[in-house]
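Entry for the shared binder. Reason: the reviewer on the internal report wants the predicted structure included alongside the sequence.
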Amino acid sequence: MKKAKKRFNTFQNSSEGFKKLLSWTDSKCQCSEKPAFCMEATGSYMEEVVEFLYDNGFDVSIVNPLLIKQKKAKLHSNKTDKADAKTIAKYCRSENPRLWTPQPQEYRQLRDVCRAIDFLKIQLTRERNKLETRVINIIVKNAINTVILAIEEQINKLEAERKKIIDEHEQIKSQVEKIVNIKGVGLGTACCILVEAPTPENFNNAKQYAAFFGITPQHFESGSSVKKGSHLSKIGSRYARKTLFMASMAVKRHNENFQPFVQRLEKKGKKAKVIVCAIMRKLMHIIFGMLKNNTNFNKNLAFAA
């Protein structure tokens, strides 16, 4: 049997590029069934193409880049786009990863609103900082204050829209209420967690769920002399990581249920930032269980040995 020839091409990450991808795939695929697509989880970069392919009736799988990296290491592949694409294709063919299913439209709407709020809050902080850095002309100061008021007005409108979406959809409302019941986790964090990842049904376990957010530790060791400290993998959504980090600092300070967990890590000599990252992972494991099983926070289950 003649071995199938491997094909490679690149496309713009845009609606026009997606159409060209389908056209190219159709011209190269010599099979009766629709081809399946597989890609690494890369946060916002993959969202539009994933939704486009799904809406056009294709099977799509999203895999943890760490799994692809392990596969690549075994194959000793070079680090190029072509080599990466080849490794992903081999992984998809051999492992048959779980098919991705999109979140309902209301979750996507909430995601867009939450991201807009996050963006405007960053802008608001920058404008406020301009007033504190040095003595400035009164005209400039008034102009900056006008911009600040305009941004605050837009944030208020978006927060009202966020509340409206939550109140109008019972499942979202129930999930948000469960998450904010964890002391230290606010409304913004709860919404961010819900909208920045596929539903828990897309994951086999809590470890995979946490890995999607890029908060699983990575280690580096080479021989006997080179050993670097662990660090977060930082794949997935940067919005979620930033929000989770801030929430975890609040949990560390104010949530009494987490104190034995924190104290154990402190006794082991862990640094403050390492402890916060550990809380991030613990939170995601807890929240995964709550969402997957539709249950409220349970201290005994959350910190069971």
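Summary line for the report: The chain has a mean pLDDT of 84.
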